[in-house]
Design goal:
17% strand; 14 helices; globular; 420 residues; Aspartate Aminotransferase, domain 1
Length: 420
């Protein structure tokens, strides 16, 4: 494990200092829903590799697609060239999202950046010179600058980057209708996380606000952007969370689960009207072109992942996960330290009370919870006051119970320590 010394010296981990202030676990290998550490300790992954490994790890069907494509063409620039894996993938995404114009990029944040740029270009092409957006309180859309500009200022990195970030308009879901009406002439569009708000608090909402947003964006010709990076490909029990409201956005961003967690790839999908309006205007083109856009390896794996998902009983599997989460985590509501327990699809969330708890103490709680779960053979990564799990759809009932038991033991221990 000499590489741990190298890691400590050279590797700057996400949301961390260098050298790391938090415990970094060395991983030897993965399989199915399991992470194997260098000391051979096995951890059931309750995070599905940041919500992306929906088929578990090392799935043979995905590996076969990867190996096959690697022998043909790992990558070629996408400017002026194309290839079969990308064309097939864009067709599949167009059919699934009902949005026929697809722009492939290499991360979720970049997909959102492109979505924002596309909305601005669309409005400019029609003679409306606007660049602001309406976003929701508690929103999280990524860590690049444009994305941070549509993240809730109170729950993101606005305090660190200040005036360098774009200025947008934030509203609660209850005031969304009034806010759209008030600022309809000043914004390019509205961006939302459908049904589940992720890193901004793992909040779960009624579909009604999506219907309101869709109706008003249509009425005022605003671009409705649905950020389905986290929710897409079944996490909420529907293929896409917008389906809970039976609406189609003007733009949808997808990522994370697109390749089953094996490769980095994301996409922005939009209506033909939007791509046509931009393409037929003086602007003419979408000015964005990542070097590894349309990577052939990633596209081949994404095609395989979508095929694997559609051929599987994923809906029944996700329903079973939701039932288990609700049944097993419900008892935690009785603890003094627990504010709420909420579940949808493959997502289970325990929110702790933060009244009277300093940020430092909250971080200690999170680390303690993580340590206890590791002792029980479960990998989990709490943040702030949230202890949550988003699992692979292929998880077994025994593995799921193992995860919920570990979460319960950890939260109960924190509750005991706090009440003594």
């Amino acid at each position: 494990m000499n590489y741990l010394k190298l890691d400590h010296k050279y590797v700057w981990h996400p949301y961390n200092a260098l050298p790391s202030k938090n415990k970094i676990l060395p991983v030897k290998k993965t399989f199915e829903q399991t992470i194997v550490l260098e000391n051979n300790k096995e951890l059931t992954d309750a995070m599905s590799s940041w919500w992306s490994a929906i088929h578990g790890y090392n799935h043979p069907f995905l590996l076969k697609a990867l190996k096959k494509q690697s022998k043909i063409m790992p990558h070629v620039m996408f400017g002026g060239l194309t290839h079969e894996p990308a064309s097939l993938l864009c067709k599949k995404l167009a059919n699934l999202t009902k949005l026929p114009s697809v722009f492939l990029v290499d991360s979720g944040s970049v997909a959102v950046e492109v979505a924002l740029k596309t909305a601005i270009l669309y409005q400019k092409a029609k003679g409306k010179d606007v660049s602001k957006f309406i976003a929701l309180k508690n929103a999280y859309h990524g860590d690049t600058l444009g994305c941070m500009g549509v993240c809730d200022p109170k729950n993101s990195m606005h305090s660190l980057y200040g005036d360098y970030l774009p200025k947008n308009i934030f509203t609660s879901i209850s005031n969304l209708k009034q806010t759209i009406k008030k600022y309809k002439n000043e914004v390019a569009g509205v961006i939302v996380e459908p049904i589940v708000q992720g890193a901004g608090g793992m909040k779960i909402h009624s579909p009604q606000y999506l219907k309101i947003a869709r109706k008003l964006c249509t009425k005022y010709d605003l671009v409705l952007i649905a950020d389905e990076i986290a929710t897409g490909f079944g996490h909420t029990g529907k293929m896409f969370a917008c389906e809970h409201a039976n609406i189609t956005p003007d733009i949808m961003t997808v990522g994370k689960s697109l390749t089953g967690g094996m490769m980095t790839l994301s996409a922005m999908c939009t209506l033909k009207n939007i791509s046509d309006t931009i393409s037929n205007s003086e602007i003419g083109v979408l000015m964005h072109g990542p070097t590894f856009m349309g990577n052939a390896l990633a596209c081949a794996v994404a095609n395989a992942s979508i095929d694997l998902l559609l051929k599987s009983p994923w809906e029944k599997r996700v329903q079973n996960i939701e039932r288990t989460f609700k049944k097993e985590l419900e008892s935690l509501k009785n603890l003094d330290i627990v504010k709420d327990v909420r579940c949808i699809g493959a997502i289970g969330v325990v929110e702790l009370k933060c009244d009277g708890i300093s940020q430092e103490q909250g971080q200690k709680y999170a680390q303690t919870i993580q340590d206890i779960c590791i002792d029980y053979g479960v990998w989990i990564r709490p943040f702030g006051k949230l202890v949550y799990s988003i699992v692979a759809y292929t998880i077994t009932n025994d593995e799921l119970i193992k995860i919920t038991n570990a979460i319960k033991k950890a939260v109960e221990k924190i509750d005991d320590a706090r009440t003594k």
